[in-house]
Write a structure and sequence with these properties.
This protein is of the alpha/beta class. It has 11 helices and 5 strands; from the N terminus they run αααβαβααβαβαβααα. Bound molecules: adenosine-5'-triphosphate and magnesium ion.
Length: 252
């Protein structure tokens, strides 16, 4: 669809086009479309911009990824459609392995996501294997590859709560991007970036490049001062403020 730039919801509609394109290419599932819709609703409530609290989470996420011994980026259908190119750039900047992991089982879709990432510059993309299983999880997402199995830090841009919980229970530190600060993933992750993935990933790349040659102690101090619950609370306060600001005036 051609959206005129003057349209007040231009950016949001362009992002929608990307996710629809993902479905048409067989990268994103139909369920992914509805998950995106839930994200859009929260983005609206947050004012569709990166909040200060999200910037703090991004700093902490960059520090953790640079300090990690074995960082892995887990990619699902929505993340690939919205930020495939940027996730490849991020994997090179850290550096970290890319591993496909989707909720709704489909070998074909896993392969299409892999091809999409390779077209966007990835050299290697891991796919789940039936003999590689993480504990504490029943869904299709329990199947992983050597990457996630071995990882100490997993960056899972869009995650569901069960898997976030399972990854943490498996002793991993988990970074998620989720527009809903109330979701189980947001609440269970080690670091939650409450922002749209399309805004968050380029900012993480920028921050990684800025901190790349920093002293390890500086990175450790960033992490020490970071409190995930505080960021979640600040985000909820912003939602509350935006709701109050937009309440109809002169209502009896
Ligand atoms: P949970 O299982 O963690 O309680 P959920 O069931 O709502 O949460 P899913 O349906 O697995 O989660 O995934 C949808 C989540 O992804 C929603 O919380 C939504 O806010 C978030 N989301 C969707 N699109 C985006 C986006 N573009 N950027 C960031 N977050 C997004
Ligand atoms: Mg869920």
């Amino acid at each position: 669809m051609t959206v005129p730039k003057s349209h007040p919801r231009y950016v949001s509609l362009k992002i929608r086009d990307k996710i629809v394109d993902g479905v048409e290419k067989g990268i994103t599932s139909l369920h992914g479309l509805t998950a995106h819709g839930r994200g859009e609703a929260f983005d609206y409530l947050l004012g569709e911009k990166t909040m200060e609290s999200a910037k703090r989470s991004i700093e902490a996420a960059a520090a953790l990824l640079l300090l990690a011994k074995y960082p892995v980026i887990s990619v699902n259908g929505n993340a690939a459609a919205l930020t495939g190119k940027e996730l490849v750039q991020l994997s090179k900047a850290i550096p970290a392995k890319l591993e496909v992991n989707i909720f709704h089982p489909s070998k074909q879709r896993e392969i299409k996501i892999k091809i999409h990432l390779i077209k966007n510059g990835a050299k290697e993309v891991l796919l789940p294997q039936k003999n590689c299983i993480i504990e504490h999880l029943d869904s299709n997402r329990k199947y992983v590859n050597g990457g996630i199995l071995k990882a100490d830090v997993v960056f899972v841009p869009l995650e569901d709560g069960d898997r976030t919980k399972a990854l943490v229970k498996n002793g991993k530190m988990v970074i998620v991007v989720d527009l809903n600060p109330m979701s189980r993933s947001a609440q269970k992750a080690t670091i939650t970036i409450v922002d749209n993935i399309v805004r968050a990933v380029p900012l993480i790349i920028k921050t990684i490049r800025r901190y790349k040659n920093s002293d390890k102690n500086k990175l450790r101090n960033i992490l020490k001062g970071y409190k995930n619950e505080k960021m979640l609370m600040e985000t909820m306060k912003i939602i509350n403020k935006n709701l109050i600001k937009n309440m109809p005036q002169n209502f009896p």
